[in-house]
Amino acid sequence: MEQFKDLQPITFPGVDPNQPLVIAGPCSAESEEQVLKTAHQLAENGIKVFRAGIWKPRTKPGGFEGVGLKGLLWMHQVKKETGMYTATEVATHEHVNAALDAGIDLLWIGARTAANPFAMQDIADALRGHDVPVLVKNPVNPDIELWIGGIQRIYNAGIRKLGAIHRGFSSYGKHLYRNEPQWHIPVELHRRIPDIPIICDPSHMGGKRELISPIAQQSLDMGVDGLMIECHCDPDNALSDNKQQLTPENLNIILNALVVRDTHMSTENLASLRQHIDQCDNELLEILAKRMRVAKEIGTFKKEHNMQIVQAARYDEIMQRRVKQAESLGLSPEFMKEVMQAIHEESVKLQLSLFEEENK
Ligand code: PEP
Ligand code: MN
């Protein structure tokens, strides 16, 4: 997008700009002792940017809602004692002003706040005239326009060190992930705003410790620019998100095992693979067009013979046969189900339009 052309990278003196940016620290600042202990352990493991939530948006009242302003003093102490940069979540203009006054180095906006344009504008107005890096988490619901709209408000306030955090999207029911990655959404964000760095937050995406490492690796494979990971000196007894927090030591083990892909090296190989993909897409489109032409012919036949459009037994047979075939070809059955459903829906729509023509 034209207006995002002058974004600036989010870099900090002493932090290697060629390595993924790692932001780590507790979900919440709980006590001075917990904050400083966690910070020192992280600093010893080479972490340079420390996160902690001071104001916590909780689903229900009565949960731990953060320590508030006094936490900012602890963050200041972290900076002084460890030399780490500090980051916290802001949700209102009061938070922005307090965090900036306290010398916080990076602000992020949480998923619940990012879903609310009034709150985003309130924060944007408070940021005007300041040159602080800001990261906007994806809104809880999978709405790319809402995410981009929020980013736009912050950009329009003059913030140029602007990034996005992909923390997954909530969905109804129980799933493997606490928040589904829905990778096509950050990929679309990257297509629309190519210069915006995207940081992955495997902690809120996975919701449990075991998933942090695989999600972090997957996100690096997808080409993200950094990671935000929750760490606590005593994760089991954390006052919020205790299942997903790691000890600084475990974070270190995970980070050391991650493979960072060299995007420069693979560009040429990618070019020929992409050509191949383009060719496959061409063939796919041609075959889809052909299938729709045949569906239309069938529609004409049904109309002439006064038959109803959806023949349930036939639909069921197509689904079952193709899902089985997909499995034998190494494709996921869920994926094939979705594809076949979409194709069938389009065929029905085409046939319906034939019937409607007649009804006019
Ligand atoms: C957090 O980072 O602790 C947090 C509240 O995250 P999210 O806004 O992604 O739920
Ligand atoms: Mn959290």
Notes on the protein architecture:
The mean pLDDT is 93. The protein is 52% helix and 9% strand. It has helices at 32-44, 70-82, 93-101, 111-114, 117-127, 144-156, 184-192, 202-206, 209-221, 248-257, 263-304, 312-328, 333-359; strands at 21-25, 49-51, 85-89, 106-109, 134-137, 162-166, 198-200, 226-230. Helix 6 links the parallel strand 5 and strand 6. It is elongated. The chain is built from 13 helices and eight strands. The chain is α/β, with parallel strands linked by helices. The chain has an eight-stranded parallel beta barrel, surrounded by five helices. The structure holds phosphoenolpyruvate and manganese (II) ion (MN).
Furnish the topology, listing elements before pairings.
Blueprint: E1 21-25, H1 32-44, E2 49-51, H2 70-82, E3 85-89, H3 93-101, E4 106-109, H4 111-114, H5 117-127, E5 134-137, H6 144-156, E6 162-166, H7 184-192, E7 198-200, H8 202-206, H9 209-221, E8 226-230, H10 248-257, H11 263-304, H12 312-328, H13 333-359
Parallel strand pairs: 1-2, 1-8, 2-3, 3-4, 4-5, 5-6, 6-7, 7-8
Helix pairs in contact: 1-2, 3-5, 5-6, 11-13, 12-13
Please state the average pLDDT score. Answer: 93
Query: What letter string, H or E per element, gives the SSE order?
Result: EHEHEHEHHEHEHEHHEHHHH
* Alpha-carbon distance between the two ends: 43 Å
**Category from helices, strands and their pairing:** alpha/beta
Unreliable spans are none
Tally of DSSP helical segments = 13
Using the CA coordinates, give the radius of gyration: 25 Å
Gross morphology is elongated
Largest sheet: 8 strands, parallel, barrel
Bound molecules: phosphoenolpyruvate, manganese (II) ion
Q: Count all strands and give the number.
A: 8
The proportion of strand residues reads 5-15%
Amount of helix:
40-55%
Spatial ordering of strands, largest sheet: 1-2-3-4-5-6-7-8
